[in-house]
Specification:
single chain, about 170 residues, 6 helices
Length: about 170
């Protein structure tokens, strides 16, 4: 009966003393430094990313290399959960799903989900999808004309304004 309480009282100080004599390896020091750095970096906490893509059957995945490179940098050593989505009229769902599935192959090694939303209104459909707890939205911006009142385009400007999560807008050639 006396041994149990004595052991319980002596074990924690003895363990602290023994562990203080054990040195930290370089690998462990590097891991702790990386964890400290990641804890201060909000990008490190992003795991779910949505990429709304306009349905364009003539565009193949080779044309999306810029977005793939940015996502590779964003993900670093970890795999992101990507959702490729498009909004199409009801008659195009099957074609759009096949097209997005083909594009999804170019985003390896990330976990990719394909989502096709039906409708005519793009912005409300994307905003509804964004209610599913995404960490970031990545948009590709077209070139705008000099006489345009929009920074990117009317749709992209509205999405950036109303998006509940951080948004990254990529413009070709930038």
């Amino acid at each position: 009966v006396v041994i149990a309480p004595t052991t319980s009282l002596l074990a924690p100080p003895a363990l602290r003393y023994c562990l203080s004599k054990v040195g930290m390896t370089e690998e462990e020091s590097a891991r702790l430094a990386k964890e400290e750095q990641d804890s201060r970096n909000w990008l490190a906490g992003i795991h779910r990313v949505v990429l709304p893509i306009r349905y364009r059957p003539g565009v193949q995945h080779e044309d999306r290399g810029f977005e793939e490179a940015v996502l590779a940098r964003l993900g670093g050593q970890r795999r992101l959960s990507l959702t490729l989505m498009t909004v199409v009229p009801p008659g195009l769902k099957t074609l759009a799903t096949e097209w997005l599935t083909g594009l999804a192959k170019g985003y390896a090694p990330h976990e990719v989900t394909v989502r096709v939303r039906l409708g005519e209104e793009v912005v409300p459909a994307i905003l509804e999808e964004l209610q599913k707890d995404y960490g970031m939205m990545v948009l590709g911006a077209p070139e705008t004309s000099p006489d345009s009142d929009s920074l990117f385009s009317a749709v992209i400007d509205e999405l950036v304004h109303l998006c509940p999560c951080p948004t990254l807008v990529l413009r070709r050639g930038s």
